[in-house]
Amino acid sequence: MSLRTPRFPLCFTARVVRGVGRGRTIGSPTLNLDPEEIPRTLKNGIYVCRIRWSRLTFAAAMHCGPRPVFADTFACEVHVIDHPVRRAPTRVTVEVVRRLRNIRNFRSVAQLQKQIARDIEMVRKILKKG
Length: 130
Fold this sequence. Notes:
alpha+beta; 6-stranded antiparallel barrel
């Protein structure tokens, strides 16, 4: 089976699953999505998104793929920008606007945190334009 390159925007709905809480500990809390519900056409990478639940829509950055800094396996996790999530929803709809960059390994968590901050700033700029 060959994988097609996804066309953007790409929209999918997925169940929110429990993560280990690592995003919260490094200052970028995420909603972890059920890997079984992620479109197979979505390549590993960092994405510009909008996320919806309860009739509300928020800007978001999404990581989809392995987590090399932590020597961890595949995850699809979404950081909701400028909106603290007090209680995780059970399901969300993700509109993937565009791919931002490849997943990279960083020498330290501090370097990863700096890149996440840059990614979030890029997401804000891209969504503000569009």
